[in-house]
Amino acid sequence: MGSANGNDGAIDNIRIVDVTPKMVKSFDPATESIGRESTMTISIVNRTDLGKKDGWAFTDTLPAGLQFTSNSYESTCTASSITVDPATGKLSVTGGVLNQGQKSCDIKVKVTSLESKEYTNGKPNGNFSDIKRLDGPDDAKVKFVQGTLNWTKVDPSGNPVGGAVFTVSGPDPATVKSPEAGWPVGDVEDCIQVGCSGLDKDPAPGVFKLEGLPTGTYTVTEKTPPTGFVPAKDSFTGTIALDKLDGQVNATQGGKITNTLGSVTWKKVDPSGNPLSGSEWKLTGGARDPKIDLVITDCIADSAAACSGPDKDPAAGLFKITDLPTGDYTLIETKSPAGYELLPEAAWEGELTADKADLDIGAITDIGRVVEMLPKTGGMGQWPLVAAGLLLVGIGALAARKRGA
Q1: Residue 210 and residue 273 in one domain
Q2: What is the reported pTM?
Q3: Per-residue confidence in pLDDT tens, the chain, 405 aa
Q4: Is 240 helix (H, G, I), strand (E, B) or coil?
Q5: Which of 258, 289, 315 is at the close of a domain?
């Protein structure tokens, strides 16, 4: 009992101190690609008294769409049990202990999402239950984003060409979690009308766009070229990154993948193999519409750049026709070199294929007789031959008359 004259029985400066540990939650990185991992950390932070705190527990249920990548975890916390269940999306801890003098401990778990979405996780959001002897945590946010992959199929002039099919692969499945149906990769057919139902979501012919992809490097290989074109021999890559979600294939070429066309070469020669100038030709065919229908004259110039017509070989009697789609062709001589007869039938019928798009027909020889040129005024021309023929006819007739007599 305290003295009435003193304060020995009094209690001064009473304070109530909260020594309950606090949960702190975070995600690193706070923004990540779909299919890739962010580390979720729950820290148990002791109060300033640093006393021993035991018997704490909690259950964290992830919001729908956010998922654990496995049942593995890392922990510096002492606890009776720590359970990660990817099937239910629950992290449960029981019998937790902070030892005397211990400031904090951490539990780390990998999470991901297959949806492009921002998630909120914390006590205010209703994700925590069965909390014992712990405060918090406040809400923490994590965001998962998706990327696109783009490229354009063009002809040698840079114009988009529709109808190609590409095979797209990547990234390494070991580095990214995939949905059951897989990511939108594989054989990609060119969508050429509004309402694309396949993997390509751009309706413009020759323009490709894949959506809903995780970050990483992708490989694009042409499987089927547009009709009449030669497929690109090389594969191309494109990268989607967090700081560049709009990925571009073959970025060094502005996202363009160029298809090449075929060519045909030949030379017009005499029976001795000497080139003959002045012939004209007609080349028809090809697999694309409208069909090729070329009128070809022999270019004779100082350089190929000076050849303005279809023939791009400046040497007399030599022909080179470029930018030809694959397909079946017919080559007909429409004008022979001076002094020679036209070839009686097609000079060549054949096919340009993707495997043999640049074709050398070889030498086309004028094997017919040389056509006699009209004589100049006053010249002999063919009259000696005609006179000799008439003479022989006359002699024959005379002999017949004699036999008849």
Answers
A1: no
A2: 0.80
A3: 445 555 555 566 666 666 999 999 999 999 999 999 999 999 999 999 999 999 999 999 999 999 999 999 999 999 999 999 999 999 999 999 999 999 999 999 999 999 999 999 999 999 999 999 999 999 999 999 999 999 999 999 999 999 999 999 999 888 899 998 899 999 999 999 999 999 999 999 999 999 999 999 999 999 999 999 999 999 999 999 999 999 999 998 999 999 999 999 999 999 999 999 999 999 999 999 999 999 999 999 999 999 999 999 999 999 999 999 999 999 999 999 999 999 999 999 999 999 999 999 999 998 655 544 444 444 444 434 434 443 343 334 334 333 344
A4: strand
A5: 258
Residues 123 and 44 in one domain: yes
Residue 396 lies in a domain: no
DSSP 77-145: SB-SEEEEETTTTEEEEEEEEE-TT--EEEEEEEEEESSSEEEEESTTTT-EEEEES-B-PPPEEEEEE
User: Is 325 part of any domain?
Assistant: yes
> Which domain covers residue 70, as residue numbers?
22-145
Residues near 99 by Cβ (< 8 Å), separated by ≥ 6? Answer: 52, 78
The CATH number assigned to the domain holding 130 equals 2.60.40.740
The amino acid sitting at 75 is S
**DSSP type of residue 305:** G
Q: Which has the closest alpha carbon to 198: 215, 214, 211?
A: 211
Radius of gyration over alpha carbons of the chain, in Å? 43
Number of separate domains in the chain: 3
